[in-house]
User: Fold Ribosomal protein uS12 methylthiotransferase RimO from Thalassobius vesicularis.
Amino acid sequence: MRAMSQNPPNLRPDLAPRARFTDAPREGQPTIGMVSLGCPKALVDSERILTRLRAEGYGISPDYAGADAVIVNTCGFLDSAKAESLEAIGEALKENGKVIVTGCLGAEPEFITGVHPKVLAVTGPHQYEQVLDAVHGAVPPDPDPFIDLLPASGVKLTPRHYSYLKISEGCNHHCKFCIIPDMRGKLASRPLKAVMREAEKLVESGVKELLVISQDTSAYGTDWKERDSKFPFLDLAREMGQLDAWVRMHYVYPYPHVTDLIPLMAEGGILPYLDIPFQHAHPDTLKRMARPAAAEKTLDRIAEWRGICPDITLRSTFIVGYPGETEAEFQTLLDWMDEAQLDRVGCFQYENVAGARSNDLPDHVPDEVKQERWERFMEKAQAISEAKLAAKVGQIMDVIVDDIDEDGIATCRTKSDAPEIDGNLFIDEGTEGISVGDIVTVEVDEAGEYDLWGQLR
Assistant:
């Protein structure tokens, strides 16, 4: 039986981890398959849909043949992502035949049905009720209340020891290269009590690491007309810092109030890790992107953050080959990288996206130039990463165990590494007494370009 499509590796730095399906359906249970593409925010949407279906008595199938219908949760961020989504829909139609489409690309239903007219239904992002209605129409529920028990944490598509926690939908930025606000709307923050209740349930169920995500995490709560504090993001971070789990912050815009978060990291409340979408460094490029054009202030902030918390890990993504990017602008980005010395870096080559305002900008960069600049950028980022990791040899640190293979080699992550987008730490021997999900202490004895090796202490 053919397994369902998953996020392909190494295509884009914003992909979610590969979804994992663990529960076996009971005999005679109606089953639904899920193809979850795109970013971690989409993965959380998939988890919510499957949790609702599981509560109605549906089973979850990891392969096409075992599913009575298949949901394809699509990505529409880039044209390459749209092509990937259309390919996944076509594969699901060929292998199963009953296909329901949701997600970001679902905001353009005619685009999907024009290519695949046989899909049963198309819904947009976070339209959970419409997805459920479509499933009911294709595969009626048949619950068994004595067997179909739903775990308190809901259905999770990640390993049991870590989980994504989405705190808001939408975005109030108007970056010219992005159509996320058109697909997902303006910022809409979840109530703080609801977020904390979910976080507490996850930790109670055994989750050791919470990965906080949204489109603009540091803007959390600023859409509330009435709020107790100016920046509820800081209140949320303080409360989450009281939980018995690693807390990792993603998609944090570098607003001035983010500096107030850093002491919490220095005190050990949340992980000393910030994922910040800088995108570029030259002020003219940032202006054409409709991004804050203050790269020099960003360097000052980075220095201030490191002064407060020397162990902080900074991760970011960048776009090279943006329309109008000159060689001088690109060189400014390389020079900025030399100064910023970011720990973890991903990079896109610019792509047009239907509906994005950047498509209409003049002076688009040829593909071969984009490729050449991407290679130079990644060479720079790799050299910085290699030097930073070499400095960790001899250090003693805590790591979380993600996997142990049949040869006993443990794949782990340090506090500086998010799942599947950053590096790993490998333990080659002496792993007989540890299990997946454990947090163990190691001494680093070897370093590579992106990964570390260590021994248990």
Q: What stands out?
A: The chain has three domains: 31-138, 162-390, 396-456. The chain is about 30% helix and 20% strand. The two ends are 43 Å apart (CA to CA).
